[in-house]
Write a structure and sequence with these properties.
alpha/beta; about 25% strand; 8-stranded mixed sheet; elongated; 9 helices; about 325 residues; 6-stranded mixed sheet
C-alpha cells in the first residue's frame, strides 16, 4: 500500500503512520532498527529497493530524506508512506524536502524514529564533509557511506580516514568481505610460509583496492604495492592479489565476473566463486552489527596512511 501526502508537514506524516498501523495492522513491534537514507532528489528508488531487500533479514523502518541539489524555491514537503508488499518487511517513509523545508533534517525525522531502537544512517551518494557531525549522523549509531560513488573515490577514502569516528563505515570495506575470507583461508593452509610482499591490482576508480592493500599490510606487516589501471581497460573493481613467499607466489585473480582463479605452488588451479557484491548484500552485512567496526577503523586510520607512504602506483592490468 502506498499513501501519498503532497505538500504536508512532519507532524501530519507521523499521524498518518499511526493511522496506518491502527487501521491496517502494520505494527512497529517487530522492527529492530530505523534506517535513515539521505540522498538527492530523484535518486531514491535504487536505495529503497536495496533497503527493502535487506529488510527481509533486518525488519526495520526506512526513512528516506531526499533534497534537490539547490535550496532555492518555495519550502515544501512531499511525503509518501509505503507498507505491505511495497515495502518488503519494512515501513518506508519518503520525505522530499524542497527549499528551507529540508534545512533541519534532524528535526524532520526525529518524531518518526522507532522508540528505543538503534538508528543507522546511509548516504548512497554524496556524503557530508564529516558524517559524524552531520544532522542525521549525530543521532545514528552507525553511519554508512560509499566512497565509490564520489568523483574521486581514493580522495574520499582518505578524507574518511582523517575524519573517522567509531561507528563510521563504508561500502568499500564491505565489498572486501569475500576477498578477505578467501585470502585468510589460503594462508591457513600449509606450508605456512611467511609472506614477504603483497601486490594488489585494481581499477583506478575502486577504493576497495587500496583498502584491501591496507588491510593486508596491517595484518602481515609487509610492503604492499598497489597497481591501478585506468578506465580504458573496461574492468572495474579489484583485479587480483599476489602474495609473495619463498616457496612461490600465491595469485588470486578475477578475470571474469563472479569467478576468480587461485594459483598456488604445487597445487592445481582452482576456480573460486567471487561475485561482485550488490547494494543489498553490502547493506544487509552492515546491518548485522550495530557496534563500531574496530578493525575497519584500524585499517582506515593506521593501514591506509601507512600504505600511502609506500605504495607504488602503475598503469596496466594485473
Amino acid at each position: 500500500m502506498i499513501v501519498d501526502l503532497p505538500d504536508t508537514t512532519a507532524s501530519r506524516v507521523q499521524r498518518a503512520l499511526v493511522k496506518i498501523r491502527a487501521e491496517g495492522g502494520a505494527v512497529a513491534l517487530g522492527r529492530v532498527l530505523t534506517l535513515v537514507i539521505a540522498t538527492r532528489l530523484g535518486a531514491e528508488e535504487e536505495a529503497i529497493e536495496a533497503a527493502n531487500d535487506a529488510s527481509r533479514e533486518h525488519p526495520m523502518r526506512v526513512i528516506v530524506v531526499s533534497r534537490p541539489d539547490t535550496t532555492d524555491g518555495e519550502p515544501r514537503l512531499d511525503a509518501q508512506i509505503r507498507v505491505g508488499g511495497d515495502a518488503g518487511a519494512s515501513e518506508v517513509v519518503v520525505l522530499k524536502a524542497f527549499g528551507e523545508a529540508g534545512a533541519d533534517e534532524e528535526g524532520l525525522i526525529t518524531g518518526m524514529l522507532l522508540p528505543d531502537a538503534p538508528v543507522v544512517a546511509w548516504w548512497p551518494g554524496e556524503a557530508p564533509d564529516r558524517v559524524s557531525d552531520s544532522p542525521i549522523g549525530r543521532i545514528a549509531q552507525r553511519r554508512i557511506t560509499d566512497a565509490s560513488t564520489q568523483d574521486d573515490p581514493q580522495a574520499a577514502l582518505l578524507h574518511l580516514a582523517r575524519t573517522y569516528r567509531p561507528g563510521d563505515s563504508d561500502f568499500a570495506w564491505t565489498r572486501l568481505t569475500l576477498w578477505r575470507a578467501i585470502l585468510a583461508a589460503v594462508l591457513d593452509q600449509p606450508p605456512f610460509e611467511t609472506v614477504e610482499a603483497v601486490e594488489v591490482s585494481g581499477a583506478a576508480d575502486s577504493p576497495s583496492t587500496e583498502l584491501l592493500g591496507a588491510w593486508l599490510g596491517l595484518q602481515l606487516r609487509v610492503p604492499v604495492t598497489i597497481v591501478l589501471s585506468d578506465r580504458s581497460t573496461g574492468s572495474s573493481g579489484i583485479h587480483g592479489v599476489r602474495l609473495t613467499r619463498a616457496g612461490g607466489d600465491i595469485d588470486l585473480e578475477r578475470t571474469v565476473p563472479n569467478i576468480a582463479t587461485l594459483l598456488q605452488p604445487g597445487q592445481p588451479t582452482h576456480q573460486v566463486s567471487l561475485p561482485r557484491r550488490s547494494l543489498r548484500d553490502c547493506l544487509a552485512e552492515e546491518l548485522r552489527r550495530l557496534d563500531p567496526d574496530d578493525l575497519f577503523g584500524q585499517v582506515l586510520t593506521e593501514g591506509l596512511p601507512a600504505l600511502a607512504g609506500q605504495a607504488a602506483t602503475g598503469t596496466g592490468g594485473p
